């Protein structure tokens, strides 16, 4: 095999870590993704940096924690000036392209302040999270009384659907993400009860095959070296799969729900607020899970089949021999576990994600087909890609660590004590229900291989889970006197992380070290006399003559 010179970064949306057969799902078979894991390394402890799409992705695409990059929620702009994956890779000579979703919101005000305009190369890159766009599709085009959720969402895909005969003002909704009854009435995918019905669309025209083909379209014409972010919207809701996938799974294939009545009755106040929110209440109903799971699992099976198509095409075109492939997810999905739906909390079913990395380089031969228990964060991906491109990761900007040393068998761990995840719910109804100020609507997770600490601002007590003896995270030890020392230790890790966030991104370590060696520009602070000074430093000061100022300035008349 050749050394990797290109990068294919595949991100799925809302895929749980345990819903692939290579991660242990007993009924959902994913042989194509499994085969990628057999050729690479499967990471067992990979964590996202936020349990929500936009914030998670901005951390991934900047290589920086939420606390550092400032994009705290969906629709919160990534501030102008935050370096991105594309910025780092282009310095190495590698182009950086997008096919699919970013969930990035442009900092329009910041762009206007700096005179950056759409339609220019730099303006478009700043507005598109540093990417050159082959096709962006954030995949969501719902519409309500206040208009479209995302004006640009699924635009090109809708045009494609219309070209195939799917009529209407929004075929994304009416066909790709809805079912139909015998009378031709649209059964919207936004209603969970319809999730076990087949989407009213031919399978090749559904979202996952369409976007996978667009990824191959890009690679067919790309000039080396390149990085492609192929970002698929599924299995994110609406949870409707087309046939034959809609009918593949039933109750006999479901994983048991992870929850107890005691957990609900004794829940932490913040957690209880999430449990009793509309999404939590919906997924607490058995009929909701029974409707959603066939669609969710069917969408994952479709993804795996499309990965098979993609990888076969890459083999046939020689791309498997020169392309590093990463497959992961931006977060998971509770699916009713812990009395929750969606993903907005720190249980592993939300913040732990699958991560498979295939490196064709001979240096990776020793680790093929292995698993890693290293504590990995998705902010590790940008430094990894820079490393592949032959660059030096900017460690004063990037807060993750390259995975190549693990892939190449040089080490088994990353240089971190804990993984960090952040949840800023200032712009959500949860904040109002809790009655906390915007500045206090924040929570943080610090976890190692044994313990998971969750800290809340706003005066709430912490939560603590013993991941070794309680892997399902059913028993909250946050009030346990016997675990006060553990809580203090984990708070120590969290405090260290807070103090080490990279806010200074304009000066490298080397530049700071050079500054510390002093200047040769005549600054002599602390020097008492000429005799004590470095002659080289003060050479411009000595042996000079000047007139008294009185001889220069005329006396007042």
Indicate the topology.
Elements: E1 6-13, H1 31-39, E2 41-47, H2 53-62, H3 66-69, H4 85-90, E3 95-100, H5 108-114, H6 121-127, E4 132-136, E5 143-144, E6 147-148, H7 155-163, H8 171-176, E7 178-180, E8 186-188, H9 207-221, E9 226-235, H10 261-265, H11 269-275, H12 278-283, H13 286-316, E10 323-329, H14 348-351, E11 352-358, E12 370-372, E13 376-377, H15 381-388, H16 404-407, E14 419-424, H17 429-434, E15 442-447, E16 451-456, E17 463-466, H18 484-500, H19 509-516, H20 549-552
Parallel strand pairs: 1-9, 1-10, 2-12, 2-13, 3-4, 3-9
Antiparallel strand pairs: 2-11, 5-6, 7-8, 10-11, 14-15, 15-16, 16-17
Helix pairs in contact: 9-13
Commentary on this structure:
By secondary structure, the protein is α/β, with parallel strands linked by helices. The chain has a single domain, classed as Alkaline Phosphatase, subunit A. The protein is built from 20 helices and 17 strands. Strands 1, 2, 3, 4, 9, 10, 11, 12 and 13 form a 9-stranded mixed β-sheet that branches. It is globular and about 105 Å long. The termini are far apart.
């Amino acid at each position: 095999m050749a050394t990797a010179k290109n990068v294919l970064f595949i991100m799925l949306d809302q895929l749980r870590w345990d819903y692939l057969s290579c991660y242990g799902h007993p009924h959902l078979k994913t042989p194509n993704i499994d085969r990628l894991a057999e050729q690479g390394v499967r990471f067992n402890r990979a964590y996202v940096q936020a349990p929500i799409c936009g914030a998670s992705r901005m951390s991934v695409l900047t290589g920086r924690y939420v606390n550092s990059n400032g994009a705290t929620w969906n629709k919160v702009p990534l501030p102008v000036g935050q370096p991105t994956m594309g910025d780092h890779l282009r310095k190495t000579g590698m182009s950086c392209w997008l096919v699919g979703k970013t969930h990035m919101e442009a900092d329009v005000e910041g762009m206007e302040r700096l005179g950056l305009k759409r339609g220019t190369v730099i303006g478009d890159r700043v507005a598109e999270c540093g990417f050159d766009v082959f096709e962006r599709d954030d995949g969501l085009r719902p519409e309500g009384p206040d208009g479209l959720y995302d004006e640009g969402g699924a635009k090109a895909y809708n045009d494609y659907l219309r070209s195939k005969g799917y009529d209407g003002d929004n075929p994304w909704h009416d066909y790709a993400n809805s079912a139909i009854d015998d009378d031709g009435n649209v059964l919207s995918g936004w209603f969970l009860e319809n999730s076990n019905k087949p989407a009213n669309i031919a399978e090749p025209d559904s979202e996952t095959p369409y976007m996978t083909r667009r990824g191959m379209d890009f690679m067919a014409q790309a000039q080396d070296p390149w990085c492609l972010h192929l970002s698929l919207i599924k299995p994110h809701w609406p949870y409707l799969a087309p046939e034959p996938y809609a009918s593949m799974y039933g109750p006999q294939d479901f994983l048991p729900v992870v929850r107890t009545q005691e957990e609900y009755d004794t829940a932490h106040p913040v957690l209880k607020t999430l449990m009793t929110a509309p999404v939590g209440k919906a997924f607490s109903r058995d009929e909701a899970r029974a409707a959603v799971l066939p669609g969710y699992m069917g969408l994952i099976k479709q993804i795996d089949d499309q990965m098979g198509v993609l990888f076969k095409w890459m083999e046939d075109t020689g791309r498997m021999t020169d392309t590093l492939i990463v497959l992961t997810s931006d977060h998971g999905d509770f699916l009713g576990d812990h009395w929750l739906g969606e993903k907005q909390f720190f249980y592993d079913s939300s913040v732990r994600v699958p991560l498979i990395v295939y490196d064709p380089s001979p240096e990776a031969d020793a680790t093929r087909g292995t698993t890693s228990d290293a504590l990995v964060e998705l902010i590790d991906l940008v430094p990894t890609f820079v490393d592949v491109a032959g660059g030096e990761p900017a460690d004063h900007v990037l807060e993750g660590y390259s995975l190549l040393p693990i892939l190449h068998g040089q080490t088994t761990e990353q240089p971190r004590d804990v993984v960090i995840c952040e949840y800023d719910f200032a712009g959500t109804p949860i904040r109002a229900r809790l009655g906390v100020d915007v500045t206090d609507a924040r929570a943080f997770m610090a976890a190692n291989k044994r313990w998971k600490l969750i800290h809340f601002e706003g005066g709430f007590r912490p939560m603590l889970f013993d991941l070794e003896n309680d892997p399902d995270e059913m028993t909250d030890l946050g009030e346990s006197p016997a675990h006060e020392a553990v809580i203090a230790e984990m708070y120590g890790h969290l405090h260290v992380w807070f103090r080490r966030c990279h806010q200074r991104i304009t000066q490298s370590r080397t530049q700071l070290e050079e500054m510390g060696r002093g200047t040769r520009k005549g600054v002599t602070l602390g020097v008492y006399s000429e005799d004590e000074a470095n002659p080289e430093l003060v050479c411009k000061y000595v042996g000079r003559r000047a007139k008294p100022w009185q001889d220069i300035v005329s006396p007042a008349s």
